[in-house]
Amino acid sequence: MTFDSNLAWKEASSAIRANRDVVLALAGVFFLLPNLALAMLFPPPEPTAGMDSKAMAAVISDYYISILPILVPTVLFQAAGTLALLTLLTDRSRPTVGEAIGGGVKGIVPYVLAQLILGIAVGLVGGAVFGLASVTGVAALAVVGIVMVGVLVIYAGIKTSLVGPVIAVEGERNPVAALKRSWSLTTGNSLRIAVFYVLVGVAFLVVTSVIVAVVGIFASLIGGAHAGEVTGAVVSSALNAVMALYFVAIVAATHRQLAGQTPDSVRATFE
Predict the structure, then answer these.
(1) Is the dihedral of CA 60, 66, 72, 74 positive or negative?
(2) Where do runs of H (alpha helix) occur along 160-189?
(3) What percent of the chain shows pLDDT beyond 70?
(4) What pLDDT, on a 0 to 100 scale, did the predictor assign at position 261?
(5) What's phi and psi for 32, nearest 5 deg?
(6) Residue 206: is its pLDDT beyond 60?
(7) Would you say residue 57 has pLDDT above 70?
(8) What is the DSSP letter of 95?
(9) Which of 116, 166, 171, 248 is the 20 to 30 Å CA partner of 100?
(10) What does the pLDDT look like over 224-254, one tens digit per residue?
(11) How far is CA 41 from the centre of its chain?
């Protein structure tokens, strides 16, 4: 089957519009609130004057290590939300919101294990490629190695982007089997899917950046620098939650199309 990005976008948008109240509420709970809490309570460090790249990397590394006890539960919580939304937007059995959330919680372990397996595999292959390129001592080959690793990461991400709906909708609980299923579904359409994801992502990033900047400036002028920061964090978290919701809907529509399912759930009304 040839992937139709236009159809996937229409189905994703229709699914969100048809069930707007429910999916927006779930996006608010699983994406908006955690992101806003992190932004307000654990803001990332600001670079200081004269800080070089190594110092910057060290500061960022220390920051993420310090918030790891908060970050891990947040990631797991958002994974459950992602799987719940995928179920609501794709499952033709029309589950209730409670059933979808319950299914999302049950799918966390295989979903996370699949991501870990993918990360380890990509890390091993990418590390070997970059290591071989670096051993030669030729700067050009090192650059080529970095580019190859980047391409590998993107390619693997596209090929396994349907792991979520495979677990949430098809009920697959074996993480390796879920990775293989996603790889199989995307075969022959990887480039089309990649271009689609990139175009949507760039469009959202541009719109988000412009809105956050404009709102932040007005808030700063009215209430001062602190008001601008708080307003920017709130608006940014809200827009990122909407972007996450749309990407979940896009992945659901992509899976539905490539798995040969009918779009009945797009018009479903949740119980």
Answers:
(1) negative
(2) 163-168, 175-186
(3) 93
(4) 62
(5) -65, -55
(6) yes
(7) yes
(8) -
(9) 116
(10) 777 878 888 889 899 999 999 999 999 999 9
(11) 22
